[in-house]
Write a structure and sequence with these properties.
Layout (H helix, E strand, L loop, with lengths): L4 E4 L3 H13 L3 E6 L7 H5 L2 E4 L7 H10 L4 E3 L9 H9 L3 E2 L4 H8 L1 H10 L7 E3 L11 E5 L9 E3 L5 H16 L4 E5 L4 E10 L5 E13 L2 E7 L6 H17 L4 E10 L5 E7 L6 H8 L3 H9 L16 E8 L1 E2 L5 E2 L2 E2 L2 E3 L7 E4 L6 E2 L6 E9 L2 H13 L2 E3 L5 H8 L2 H4 L7 H5 L9 H22 L18 E7 L2 E9 L4 E3 L5 E7 L3 E6 L2 E10 L2 E6 L2 E7 L14 E3 L4 E6 L6 E2 L4 E7 L2 E6 L4 E6 L6 E2 L4 E7 L8
Parallel strand pairs: 1-2, 1-4, 2-3, 4-5
Antiparallel strand pairs: 6-9, 7-8, 7-9, 10-11, 10-13, 11-12, 12-15, 13-14, 15-22, 16-17, 18-21, 19-23, 20-22, 24-25, 24-31, 25-26, 26-27, 27-28, 28-29, 29-30, 30-31, 32-39, 33-35, 33-38, 34-37, 35-36, 37-39
Length: 648
């Protein structure tokens, strides 16, 4: 090995993943962090950490940190500067080893239009593309706007008719410029019933190329992947061979080196596949490939960067079983998967079923709008696709989680969805099959969760009692009365009545009974009408997080004398997520129609347009451009004229 120390120019779960691989190889690691990220797990897990005064996008500062720490190599992870050819060049010019494809390859593949021409020359089919200028009059819509220099859903818009082209291209340019420093975009034919299939490749510096099979990453929101699996259920053996060989042809045509992913769009009806792009870096979803091949891809990436030969050929790569990965994100599916923030007051992974957790966070981590909303990747591997999906769904449901809104319930529901299990995983899966966005409790599940919460509170009261702690709560020198606890689940209030008898059993006042077998600050073991369960419980202020059969139930403890509230501003439109005000398109006194853009927010480098829910007049505007707002901040007041005030 030509180096013994690696600086990791990244954060979160991928930084932790690189630390694990490097340490297993006997290598020292140096993490990097910014002020807002100083308490993240990757900072303390590395051998040491270098603080950046600016950001993870400051290439000069990253190189300086590597040299100062005595690192011989730099691993960029993914995102940030991982596909920046100039940065890769500067790293090697500074005498450091770049763990990734060389700058010449990144430059060749970084321009998606140029990459398409390379693929076409290699005999691989591509979709027709057009720049953002004058378009042919005979174009068939819809079209897809894409950023020339990037991916990850940034700078992407679906254009459904000619009238939308100008506005959506402009929005895509802004997003691309902010995300990649390059505002170039292009349009290509949009295939609504398609699959996103990608091939993992690896090449050393000695001319040896191999692939590690394909992954399907079709289930997406906002053109960003949520669920990935290997192998794809849509491909026959011959189709799999054809798409993997096409990926290697593209790689050989540019003398590729290191790890990379060649991405294709597979038409679900015709089974034609079209080259999309090459991601010249480690992919977020690499664990599913590791699971089915048994190959540590990060280790291989480091070996190749050090100049080592692969030492094996394609015939040595074998595939076993099926693997699925889900991305647990801080976002609100009900609000269109908008990013969410907060503190993880509960984050406890169940010991079983055994799955792989690649986590960016831990209990107490704060989630902000500064970074991608990915909290953790959860990966399951097994002999059959159905078994893997069930295992992964159960692992998600058994995660005790609270403090931040996430897509956990949506992911579990999708994994159990009939059409997912049938393999109907096209890119329009969410829109076509509409899996439940949140956990829907049965009446029995809600009753049991609320009862467990009320009895947990009863146990807390006894534990905190300054005197007579061993006496039943509500004790009187006579017959004990029923006690009452009211909890709120969403907009619904539930009151539990209970009275403890001399044998320790609780009469719940409605003919049912409960018995408390064990209680502590984090768990309750309770039997309700003969059904016993152990539940994790976390209290954060006046909110309880109670583990249920299919996830965590969030309950608010209703005080006996609740504090007076404030009436919401009439006609007030509030921010659906925290972010920065990018544009304010209206002024006080302006009349707007339903659907008109009012305010544009930016969160996690994505634009979100706040539109008028009904026709009316803007009476007040409370925010200005560049202002940072929290979720729920009132942006403006819109007075309806009564003509159209239905749901938007």
């Amino acid at each position: 090995m030509s180096f013994d120390t690696i600086l990791i120019a990244n954060r979160g779960e991928i930084a932790r993943r690189i630390i694990r691989a490097a340490r297993a190889m006997g290598l020292r690691t140096v993490a990097t962090y910014v002020a807002s990220d100083g308490d993240s797990p990757h900072v303390t897990e590395a051998d040491e950490a270098e603080r950046l005064a600016t950001s993870y996008l400051d290439g000069a500062a990253l190189i300086e940190a590597a040299l100062r720490a005595g690192a011989g190599a730099l691993h960029p992870g993914y995102g940030f500067l991982s596909e920046n050819a100039t940065f890769a060049h500067d790293v090697t010019e500074a005498g450091l080893v770049w763990i990734g494809p060389p700058a010449r390859v990144i430059a060749a593949m970084g321009d998606k239009l140029a990459a398409k021409e390379i693929a076409r020359a290699a005999g691989v089919a591509v979709l027709d593309s057009f720049d953002g200028g004058a378009l042919p009059s005979d174009l068939t819509y819809p079209l897809l706007v894409k950023a020339t220099a990037g991916g990850g859903g940034k700078g992407m818009r679906i254009v459904r008719n000619p009238e939308e082209v100008e506005e959506l291209v402009a929005a895509a340019r802004r997003e691309a410029a902010h995300g990649f420093g390059d505002d170039r975009v292009f349009l290509e034919r949009y295939v609504p019933r398609a699959r996103h299939v990608e091939v993992q490749i690896l090449a050393d510096h000695h001319g040896q190329f191999v692939h590690f099979g394909e992954r399907e990453c079709s289930i997406q929101r906002r053109h960003q992947k949520l669920i990935e699996e290997s192998p794809s259920s849509a491909l026959s053996s011959d189709e799999r061979s054809a798409i993997c060989e096409a990926a290697l042809r593209v790689a050989r045509s540019v003398s590729y080196e290191s790890l990379g992913t060649v991405e294709f769009l597979l038409d679900d009806e015709s089974k034609e596949f079209f080259f999309l792009e090459v991601n010249t870096r480690l992919q977020v979803e690499h664990p599913v490939t590791e699971a089915v091949t048994g190959v540590d891809l990060v280790r291989e990436q480091i070996r190749v960067a050090a100049g080592e030969a692969l030492g094996y050929d394609q015939n040595s790569v074998s595939f076993h079983g099926h693997a699925i990965e889900v991305r647990l994100c801080a976002e609100d599916p009900v609000a269109g998967f908008l990013p969410a923030t907060g503190e993880l007051v509960a984050f406890d992974v169940a010991a079983e079923p055994k799955v792989r957790w690649d986590s960016a966070v831990e209990l107490g981590s704060r989630v902000t709008v500064d970074f991608d909303p990915l909290l953790a990747k959860v990966i399951a591997h097994g002999t059959s696709r159905g078994e893997v999906a069930a295992t992964l769904a159960l692992a998600l449901e058994r995660l005790h989680l609270g403090g931040v809104r996430t897509n956990r319930d949506f992911l579990a529901a999708t994994l159990r969805h009939r059409n997912f299990l049938l393999g109907e995983t096209t890119t329009d899966f969410i829109e076509r099959f509409r899996p439940p966005l949140t956990q829907t409790l049965t009446e029995e599940e809600l009753r049991d969760a609320v009862t467990a919460a009320a009895l947990w509170l009863q146990g807390e009261s006894r534990a905190d009692a300054p005197v007579l702690a061993d006496a039943p709560s509500g004790w009187r020198n006579g017959r004990l009365p029923h006690q009452r606890r009211t909890l709120r689940y969403g907009d619904e209030s539930r009151t539990v009545e209970y009275r403890r008898d001399r044998l320790g059993e609780f009469d719940l006042g409605d003919g049912s009974h409960a018995r408390l077998h064990a209680w502590n600050r984090s768990t309750i073991d309770v039997e309700i009408d003969g059904r016993r369960s152990q539940r994790r419980v976390t209290r954060a202020g006046d909110r309880l997080y109670v583990q249920a059969r299919r996830g965590t139930v969030e309950l608010d403890v209703v005080a006996l004398l609740p504090p007076p509230g404030r009436d919401a501003l009439a006609g007030g439109l509030s921010a659906p997520m925290p972010g920065a005000v990018l544009d304010v398109r209206v002024t006080a006194g302006q009349r707007v129609s339903r659907g008109d853009a009012l305010v544009v927010l930016e969160a996690m480098k994505m634009e979100h347009v706040i539109s008028a829910p009904y026709e009316g007049v803007v009476t007040q505007v409370f925010v200005t451009v560049s202002q940072q707002v929290e979720r729920g901040t009132t942006l403006l007041a819109l007075e309806s004229d009564g003509a159209d005030q239905g749901p938007s």
